[in-house]
Amino acid sequence: LSVVPLAAQSQTDTSLKLSTTNPAAAAEFRAGMSDFQNLSFESSAAHFKAAVDADPNFGLARVLYGGGGLLDPSPLNTELNRGVADAARATNNELILAAAYREATLGHTDAANALFRAASQLMPGDELLAWQATGGFGAPLSTTREFVARHPNFPIGYNTLAYAAWAGGDRAAALAAAKRQVELIPTAPNPHDTYAEILQWNGNFADAAAHYKAAT
């Protein structure tokens, strides 16, 4: 892992430019990333698997497919390691991302966060990476508030803020954040599920039921 940031120093791209030349693989990967950042993980894993089927050498897609929670430990490790090895033959951006997602999937939080921070510095325009660089779901409330202030239209920030604010005792902020996520992506299931949970915990059972139904 210590080699990855050194290799990445030569990277000049400020956004992820996919190395795959297969249009179907690229399209499936982008669809997978869209679902991933909207917290539809099973759907995103299906898209990443389709990307790998279209281009078996697309390492980053293979790692993200492995991280979808659909594989047992032995094939998971095989997929993750092959994905990183394939990404090492692609761009430095893909390599560092593949390594970051592998470490995150394996529960190596410190290593993953360090790699996501490096990736975010290389690709500063990527809001998902900026969120992951904060620690993602594990970020403290103050950090999450700062992230949302900088990225007010990025839905996943409000998901994190909703739960962190609730855990911190700020019910009004939790409800507002969950509602805002629904407003930003009303056709995705997870925002409705999140809002339903916060509403239920707050005793708003009728509204919670309506959003659980919307999520379903």
Q: Can you tell me about this structure?
A:
With 216 residues, the protein is mainly alpha-helical. It has 13 helices and no strands.
Portion in beta strands: under 5%
Main beta-sheet annotation: none
Q: Based on CA inertia axes, which overall geometry fits? A: globular
What share of the residues lie within helices?
Answer: over 70%
SS-based structural class? mainly alpha
Number of strands: 0
Q: Which sequence of SSEs, written as H and E, runs from N to C?
A: HHHHHHHHHHHHH
Rg over alpha carbons: 18 Å
Residue windows where pLDDT falls under 50 for at least 5 positions: 1-12
Summed up, the helix count is 13
Distance between the termini: 40 Å
Mean pLDDT value: 92
Output the keywords:
216 residues, mainly alpha, 13 helices, globular, disordered N terminus
How would you concisely characterize the structure shown here?
With 216 residues, the protein is mainly alpha-helical. It is built from 13 helices and no strands.
